[in-house]
Amino acid sequence: MMSCGLSAAAVAAPAVMLNDALITQIPKADSASFHEAVAQSLNNSADGQRTEWTSTVQRKKAAPIKVQLTPTKTTKVKDDRVCRFLVGEFSRTTTTETWQFWFCKQPDGTWKASSN
Question: Is-contact 95 27, C-beta < 8 A?
Answer without folding.
Answer: no
